[in-house]
Amino acid sequence: MNFERAKSIILIVLVGTSIFLTWSIWTYEPEYDPFEQSSEFIKIKSDVQIVSDVIKPVSILFHGNGQHFQTSNLVEISEMEKEFSQWRFSGIEEVSVKRLQRKFDDFVHEDGSIEIEFSDDIPIALYKTVLNIRDKEVPGFSFDRIIIKQKDIVGNESAVYFVSYDQEKVYQGMVDSKKLRNFMDSFYTGSYDEHPEYTAETINSKRTLFVPENPVEINRLEYYIDYLDIGNLKNALFNFPKFVRQESVSVGEEYTDGTRLMTVNKENYLISYINPAQKSKLFGSSSDLLQKSIDFINDHAGWENNNYRFAYMSENEQRVVFRLFVNGYPAFNESGMTEIEQIWGKEEIYSYDRPYFSLDSVLPSEESVKTLQSGREVLNQLKSKDNIDFKSVEDISIGYKLNKSLDSKLVTLVTLEPTWYYRIGDKWFIVPFEEDSGGDQSGLE
Predict the structure, then answer these.
(1) N or C: which end of the chain has fewer CB within 10 A?
(2) CA 62/CA 66 separation, integer angstroms
(3) What pLDDT digit, counting tens, does each position of 296-319 carry?
(4) What total of structural domains would you count in the chain?
(5) Other CB atoms closer than 10 Å to residue 51's CB: what's the count?
């Protein structure tokens, strides 16, 4: 073997070895001992919500034998949702109110029925992602309650009703009767013994409200709070965050790129954002409006421990409001500390107002039971006030009034005080009892 041939063989071996070693490095997968994840050390936060997470019933009404019972129990509402989301709906169509052969209000609150109530009208085009609808085409409508009537469960398929109370519109979808009978057996039968009794009050010719017969005991709560990352909000709201200027102002901080403005209010832990260039509105469908509002908050993990629910929508204003709920009850605050509000422009968000804190941990030792007045006392109080147009009242509800305070260690707390509220239009007000010193008459959206 001559010298040149030896060099060639050595070079081939070296090149082959190099290729092998490179391949080994690229494909190497080290073996680790199994590691059991513990939530004590690892926290992975998922803050993406789908339609069924955000659009939820606020209460369930049971009507039977001239009596009415209601619950806002989260477990029971979730069980009902699970049931009706598995039904197969077909033949969805509008039902003429004249065909009902009775007054609209009597039909909605009829004996022998379950009334599943939502905060505001919901477009079926969006909520059909929750339901199992077999129809290829579904008429466009919105509803704020789903009603199942015991007397209408006949034959192989029976009607379930979607009702818009304000518009006095009724649509029906057909569902397997066996599933409806099982549903009524599970939730309607025995509801008299399991839920507090409510009294019906006719507010005007088109509206009946239901309030508890007896005083209500409910816990007053205190929470430590946690904070959202302001940087995430800034990155979500500004196209070029690195060009955003930050300045200190009396209430906290301002961020601007010369067009958009985001104000951080450190007194009430609020974010206020506006983009004047987007003021011209493009009116899309209510379904698209609500879906993009949910997606927008998903994009910057802004749901704050999943405690916010859809509360109100105005298609004309392109406005959507989500509200904080605690233990099934809505929370209110005159400064806006319990609301996420969006107004949409022609291409992007026009304005965005929200808190940047979340309820972290409750102080169990600070829980105390508060007894609220009966619904009858609430009604009498509202009727007695000259500055309240009782016939314009659209809802009456128990809610939590959120207040902030500092404990001895200068840690921020929020207190949730059980309180009676009433609604006119899209604004909520505290029912003005004597101990409330006249009540808070500022509108809480």
Answers:
(1) N
(2) 10
(3) 999 888 887 789 999 999 999 999
(4) 3
(5) 17
